[in-house]
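Example 9 (inverse folding). The structure is encoded as follows.
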């Protein structure tokens, strides 16, 4: 038993209300209400009637001391155009000391609602989301931040997106612009219904989701991209529950803001899920105070955790972008991971036509007193005198070939190798990195000088 601020005793998990017919919803669930359902909810085929008991979709809302914002989110969820009994909502409280639980109780007879409380032991949003997901019983999980106001077709649009097969759905979030809030939005939301706000201002660039330009570039079709998971943000998204559980949910070692959703998206992508943007599953982010400097530093720390979990070039590129000095949270095309990864893939093909055996033989003959050596762009053939070197290459074929011969090799470009400062006496940068150095010369050579006392390079410039 945990005592919540205000003296109310409660269990960590409470089912607060399961009304038979929710206000404003169609009675059911005798049919689908015209919705296209995912396969997990649609065992009846060829026009047969579907009769499904239990929730079709579960909404998990992590929160911490945001009672007023949470109230708005829950109120918007009562207005969803979904058949009755098909939606459950789980509020996952990360240790709030305000009146969050009282706010949740006020919706007990309006929503099929569960509440999970975990003691305040610092930022544990990933753990809160995972606890909420474990309580969920529907085959589709929606993750929504407390403070977004979903439109009336938010849940039906998320649900229908999963009818196309295993997919990770990215809902569009108007007004989500950290560091660049939409002028007048807070006032408009206090006086105007959210759907009317979107109708009036939805075309204004200052009201767009901060990812809009990136989405627009690919005509809102993430099948055209190679790194779709970089846009998978947990404020408004959905996934199949079985896929979420198969990859292990959110990584709970992320203990501050930022990055844990990208890391989950990365694993879902590797698990085989498609990613899609759904503009009909829209919500509006209510303006509220943010600590931009703290969030930026936290995000970088977490992206280092991401890189340590998955040390490979595409994550290295992501980390390198966020580690650059910049005035605040930015999404632009000066260093877009999609562009950089495509360029790296082209450089990989080119590097396969380049042998660096002579370069490495020459360097091996000149080692002198250098006993600790790192090679960036090592290639598939390693001289015996470099057998103990720390080897890195960006080509997965090289990494696999060397691993098959019992060699340990890091899969990295050399933007960030995870080696400690001054870990080696000598760093050799081979000409295999000539292509990458056309774009990232400064970053690669800065990393070489960070990890080594001496650097010898075979790249132009």
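The amino acid assigned to each position is listed next.
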């Amino acid at each position: 038993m945990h005592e919540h601020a205000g003296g109310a005793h409660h269990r960590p998990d409470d089912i607060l209300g399961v009304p038979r017919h929710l206000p404003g919803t169609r009675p059911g669930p005798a049919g689908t209400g015209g919705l296209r359902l995912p396969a997990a909810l649609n065992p009846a085929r060829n026009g047969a009637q579907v009769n499904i008991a239990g929730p079709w979709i579960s909404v998990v809302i992590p929160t911490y001391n945001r009672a007023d914002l949470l109230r708005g989110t829950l109120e918007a969820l009562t207005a969803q155009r979904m058949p009755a009994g098909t939606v459950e909502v789980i509020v996952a409280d990360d240790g709030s000391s305000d009146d969050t639980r009282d706010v949740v109780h006020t919706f007990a007879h309006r929503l099929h609602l569960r509440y999970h409380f975990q003691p305040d032991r610092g930022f544990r949003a990933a753990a809160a989301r995972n606890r909420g997901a474990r309580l969920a019983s529907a085959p589709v999980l929606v993750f929504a931040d407390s403070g977004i106001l979903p439109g009336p077709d938010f849940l039906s649009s998320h649900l229908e997106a999963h009818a196309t097969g295993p997919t990770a759905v990215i809902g569009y979030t108007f007004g989500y612009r950290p560091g660049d809030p939409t002028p007048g939005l807070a006032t408009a939301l206090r006086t105007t219904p959210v759907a009317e706000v979107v109708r009036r201002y939805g075309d204004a660039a200052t009201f767009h989701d901060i990812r809009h330009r990136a989405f627009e570039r690919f005509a809102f079709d993430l099948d055209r991209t190679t790194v779709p998971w970089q846009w998978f943000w947990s404020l408004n998204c959905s996934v199949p529950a079985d896929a979420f559980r198969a990859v292990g949910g959110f990584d709970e070692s992320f203990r501050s803001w930022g990055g844990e959703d990208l890391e989950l998206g990365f694993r879902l992508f590797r698990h085989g899920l498609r990613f899609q943007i759904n503009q009909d599953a829209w919500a509006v982010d209510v303006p509220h105070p943010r600590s931009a400097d703290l969030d930026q530093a936290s995000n970088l720390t977490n992206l280092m955790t991401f890189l340590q979990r998955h040390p490979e070039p595409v994550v290295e590129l992501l980390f390198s972008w966020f580690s650059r000095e910049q005035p605040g949270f930015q999404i632009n095309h000066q260093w877009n991971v999609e562009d950089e990864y495509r360029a790296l893939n082209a450089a990989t093909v080119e590097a396969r036509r380049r042998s660096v055996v002579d370069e490495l033989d020459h360097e091996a003959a000149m080692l002198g007193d250098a006993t600790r050596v790192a090679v960036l762009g090592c290639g598939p053939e390693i001289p015996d005198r470099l057998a103990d070197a720390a080897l890195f290459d960006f080509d997965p074929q090289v990494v696999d070939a060397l691993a098959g011969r019992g060699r340990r090799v890091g899969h990295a470009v050399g933007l960030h190798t995870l080696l400690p400062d001054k870990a080696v006496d000598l760093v050799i940068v081979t000409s295999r990195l000539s292509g990458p150095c056309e774009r990232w010369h400064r970053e690669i050579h800065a990393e070489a000088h960070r990890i080594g006392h001496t650097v010898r390079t075979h790249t132009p410039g």
